[in-house]
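Sat 14:20. Reprocessing the chain from the morning session after the first attempt stalled halfway. Input below, unchanged.
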Amino acid sequence: MVDTMALLPPFIRSSRMPRKPSRLVGRTPADDEVLLDAPDDRLGPALVAAARGEYEPAAELLAATRTAADWENRDRYARRLAAFARSRDEWYEGWRAAAPHDPDALLIGAQLVLERSWQSPARAELLRRASPLITAAAHGDDRDPVPWRIALDHARGSHAGHKYFEQLWEAAVRRAPHHYGCHVAALRYLAASWHGSHHACFDFADLAAQDAPAGSLVQALPARAAFSYLTDGCGPEVPGERLDAAADRAIALSARFPAADPWPAEMRNKLMYVLVRLERWTDADEQLRLIGPYATSFPWDRFSDDPLGRFLEIRDEIRDKAGRNPASRHPRSEHGGRAHSGDH
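Finished this time. Tokens:
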């Protein structure tokens, strides 16, 4: 089974827009200056408008990503807008009523129904009902890989077989062979299908990273595999050298992005957790500097109902250990062994 999934073509190239540097670059933000899941300067206005019940800015934003084939931002923005619609969907319902066949409205609808399905006790039935919506989104723009990433996540939730998953994967990479979100979906499917087979996950992630451009987000895929291993609590041991190599790849990628930038913030937060678990305090402290004020819910919501508070606790401990005793033990909680996580 491992050999079959290893055949998945591991390609990715991130697509980024220039961003203004944070005013906090060069200094350590105070606790009350740290932001959780801060949107970038393109998404922020769309969310503000959605809070007023206006869908047009969100529609314009997603249409621009589709026109520019900016698939990485399109995926990220679709997730954030759908998450907002879970609690306040008046703006989305207005959009759907005004333009029921709009590819961007269809995309939000597919992501929204998937997220609602994950959280429901009737998950299996809701996932079955989601299939037509995902199909409609995929037909909205034949170039767009993001509905196929949603389909891959849906297949994982539905416990789809490997053959069907590989068909979806092939359709996704045919449209955008460099799409990072689809690679994460494949990694998570591997983790869910062969629970505890972390070596298979690392094999896939390492092969993907080896074939990817140096500035591609897929360079952080092995660190994602390391995170899953460190928080899983089952399966054979992964050698420390492999964990360190995964962290080193992500460190090199992180250094390519500007400091205090919301774009790589989630990757850096995840990397910081992995470095803490590996007791690499100096490296973790450097990621803190690069993160600046941009904390993200993932991975901290895996361990606390207060992800920002957990981030700040770990931040304080990293500073303490990096400054006094880099070889000291792990921070509080999760560190006596591998902790369970919802990442799978």
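The first helix runs from residue 2 to 6.
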